[in-house]
Design goal:
Layout (H helix, E strand, L loop, with lengths): L5 E3 L2 E3 L1 H9 L1 H11 L2 H23 L4 E2 L1 H11 L7 H15 L13 H12 L1 H5 L29 H6 L6 H6 L11 H13 L5 H20 L8 H6 L3 H7 L11 H21 L6 H9 L2 H19 L1
Parallel strand pairs: 2-3
Antiparallel strand pairs: 1-2
InterPro entries: NqrB/RnfD, RnfD_bac
Keywords: Flavoprotein, FMN, Membrane, Phosphoprotein, Translocase, Transmembrane, Transmembrane helix, Transport
GO biological process, one term: electron transport chain
Length: about 325
């Protein structure tokens, strides 16, 4: 996928990035309803820090700030719990934009997704804010549209759906689908994520193959483990719809700069992300493994594309 860029005013115009932002509107509104208006305050702070970080480097290159940094800021914010301290969020977005994007030369040259790198950095550096500072969700109209933030979750008696699954407990499936569960702000509502993903595919702003491949890998590997009788493995659909995996499949695996360009590599890339997520999630020390799975596979994208091109070239030589 070729990202078209145009310069206009302060930002470098990127039509695809605008489509991604539009697709995130229902997810963002749903997150405000569930978790409160603090999301907007957190988003404003994160976006300002992200733009400022990119501006410093873009100015040195005599370039404009890309609209991609707006997408990065929104996705990063939605990947956080609503109670995340502002300073932690700022550290995360600055680290992500700086070390996952600008050190590689800016947009289009980065190997890793800045939002995932930023979140993973604070997940490792300040784990208590991303693993224990969960909040309850609002229910009933107007929900969080008129409240700042939901009450903290009692982690001694309650937990996120993913943590409960590890303990052998599950929540009602309807509760998981609609998003009435604790977790990071953008990951809980499967329905709203499906709306956003459908918009991206219809507007050709994301490749459906990159969305489907990790889901196939996750569902297939989880089913095999489930049939083999491995303890602690929930229903494949429950596993896919809890935690950040579904959110990452739609908005992070499909990121055009860091994903493969050749079709065979896209399928292999996505399927392996799904399988690695299962391994980390159910056999590693981290409850959520999707972010690590994407970062691991990002490192292999260039060689995967080159490998596909080499095999195609060899096949042509054999048949000619």
């Amino acid at each position: 996928m070729v990202v078209q860029n145009k310069s206009s005013g302060f930002f470098q115009r990127q039509p695809i990035m605008r489509k991604v932002l539009i697709s995130l509107i229902p997810v963002g509104l749903g997150a405000v309803y569930l978790f409160g208006l603090r999301l907007l305050a957190l988003l404003a702070v994160v976006t300002a820090a992200g733009i400022a970080t990119e501006y410093i480097f873009a100015k040195k290159r005599n370039a404009k700030v890309t609209e991609a940094v707006l997408v990065t800021s929104v996705l990063f914010t939605l990947s956080l719990p609503v109670a995340t301290p502002f300073w932690v969020a700022v550290v995360g977005i600055v680290f992500g934009v700086l070390f996952a994007k600008e050190v590689f030369g800016g947009f289009g040259r980065n190997v890793f997704n800045p939002a995932i790198v930023g979140r993973t950095f604070i997940f490792i550096s300040f784990p208590e804010f991303l693993t224990a500072s969960w909040s309850q969700v609002f229910t009933g109209f107007p929900g969080g549209f008129v409240r700042y933030m939901a009450s903290p979750l009692d982690t001694l008696t309650q937990a996120t759906p993913l943590a409960l699954a590890r303990a052998g407990e599950t929540l009602p499936f309807s509760q998981v689908i609609w998003g009435y569960t604790s977790g990071s702000m953008g990951e809980t509502s499967v329905v709203l994520l499906l709306l956003g993903g459908t918009f991206l595919v219809l507007k050709k702003a994301a490749d459906w193959k990159l969305m489907a491949a990790p889901m196939i890998g996750f569902m297939g590997f989880t089913s095999i483990l489930k049939l083999a009788g491995v303890a602690g493995i929930p229903h494949p659909l429950y596993g896919m719809f809890t935690g950040a995996f579904f959110f990452l499949c739609i908005y992070f695996v499909t990121e055009p700069t860091t994903a493969p360009k050749t079709v065979p590599a896209k399928w292999v890339y996505g399927i392996l992300i799904g399988m690695i997520t299962v391994l980390i999630r159910y056999f590693g020390i981290f409850v959520e493994g999707a972010s690590f799975a994407i970062l691991i596979m990002n490192t292999f994208v260039p060689i995967m594309d080159e490998g596909v091109k080499y095999l195609k070239k060899q096949r042509k030589q054999v048949t000619s």
